[in-house]
Write a structure and sequence with these properties.
The complex is a heterodimer.
Chain A (H helix, E strand, L loop, with lengths): L2 H38 L1 H11 L4 H25 L6 H39 L2 H7 L4 H39 L4 H11 L2 H29 L4 H31 L4
Helix pairs in contact in A: 1-6, 2-6, 3-4, 3-6, 4-6, 4-7, 4-8, 4-9, 6-8, 8-9
Chain B lengths: L3 E12 L2 E12 L3 E5 L6 H8 L7 E6 L2 E2 L5 H8 L2 E4 L11 H12 L4 H14 L15 H12 L6 E5 L7 H18 L2 E6 L2 H7 L2 E6 L2 E6 L1 H5 L4 H8 L15 H4 L5
Parallel strand pairs in B: 3-8, 3-9, 6-7, 7-8
Antiparallel strand pairs in B: 1-2, 1-4, 4-5, 9-10
Helix pairs in contact in B: 3-4, 3-5, 4-5, 6-7
The chains are: A mainly alpha, B alpha/beta.
Amino acid sequence: MTASDLLPTLGRVALSNLRGMGRSAFFLVEMLKQLPPTLLRFHLVAAQIHAIGNRSLVIIAASGLAVGFVLALQGYYTLSRYGAAESLGLMVALSLVRELGPVVTGLLFAGRAGTSLTAEIGLMKAGEQLAAMEMMAVDPKGRVLAPRFLAGIIAMPLLAAIFSAVGILGGYVVGVLMLGIDPGAFWSQMQSGVDVWDDVGNGVIKSVVFGVACTFVALYQGYEAAATPEGVAQATTRTVVVSSLAVLGLDFVLTALMFSAPH
Amino acid sequence: MSDAIVTLDHVTFGYDRRVILSDISMAFPRGKVIAIMGGSGCGKTTLLRLIGGVLTPSKGRISFDGTPVDARDRESLYALRRRMGMLFQFGALFTDLTVFDNVAFPLSEHTTLPPPMIRDLVLMKLNAVGLRGAAQLKPADLSGGMARRVALARAIALDPDLIMYDEPFAGLDPISLGVAANLIRRLNDATGATSLVVSHDVKECFLISDYVYVISGGRIVGHGTPAEVQASDDPEVRQFIRGEPDGPVRFHYPARGYGEDLGLRA
């Protein structure tokens, strides 16, 4: 490629990316505008919370349990070197509520609920269901997308809370029941060391942000998908890739903002 | 035409540099069944989308009952769309809802009628298309012809002034085809609406329509009553209604010389 070819190609790529960013920003504004009227039709949101949240419960709980088990095993190995094995409960709880609960739930949410949202919206578009709704003078953004968006934002922190709770139980099973740590120390250290606002509260804020990001990406990709089988397949893949990167990137930013300030 | 419900005034539409419809003027009188015919890709569906305000013409004006169809003015466009019903080519039923809920959808979205009244209205619409007994089925349980009839019941749920049919006969077996054609005519006469049928099925269209437009290459090549169009001596119209493989519409996609492509010298 010569230099004279490079410039127009660069320009095209930059313009198409800018256009994509502009479209997604408009889409986000539209979604946010639709939220208040959607609240008035909460039965639509409740059905989606069931579809998005309830059906993700098993994978979230199973993953939470596995992560709790592993955290306890690894934590015990490190802490017992310094004679601090009694702090295992605190370590497991802080790791989960501050970091792993929101992040792993976000990643699982992108894979489980995000992909199904993208495929559903993409196929509705391919089957002209969204166009049919438009022709019936019903805005699909308000009727189909906004209830799913709100449901994702509500479901995500609930799922993250369940992930952390089950993870702590997993840590208890390994730490107390299998490795023999004193149960009193396990729970009391956790109780005194975990702050409701600084730790749990910030974890909840993270999971809400991840909920917004993952659901927005999933809906946008579905709505913008080319109305063909390949288009929907590519959009579904993009949902997982973009959502996962968004969760990890946002997590770094949020962690830096929330936990780096000296107390 | 003063009693026209939809008028297209010198409408041109295209994507980028490709012109789909060129300088089209039409007027659809109230209460009639009008067929818009033409080969695949001639711009028939685009025409429906322009009338529905999904697309905006590059030139010209479209008006519905005297009001301009303007995609930029969402509120007035939605008000117009409430008076239009559209049957999509494959029905476009909402797959997560039952047949009943599909037909009830426009009623529950646009009216504040109590549920018992909505139920009665839905059953009446379903009865009109012969599918009252299928009310609790899901779209996946329906045949293609049944799905289209449900979509038709949904399209007429709000008693529209204009019903647009996008390829209503495509892919139907002979019985479903006869049922669909009969329904379009019968519903049109019973409701007093105007029906716009976009199709390439010559026999059915000529049977049920009052007026026919034939489009080719983005322009109107013939129009009139079915008898007038049938008697037309325009070569493009004749090729279309007789289904001749070659004529003004070429069999071969434009290409360089055959011999040249095969590396032969004349």
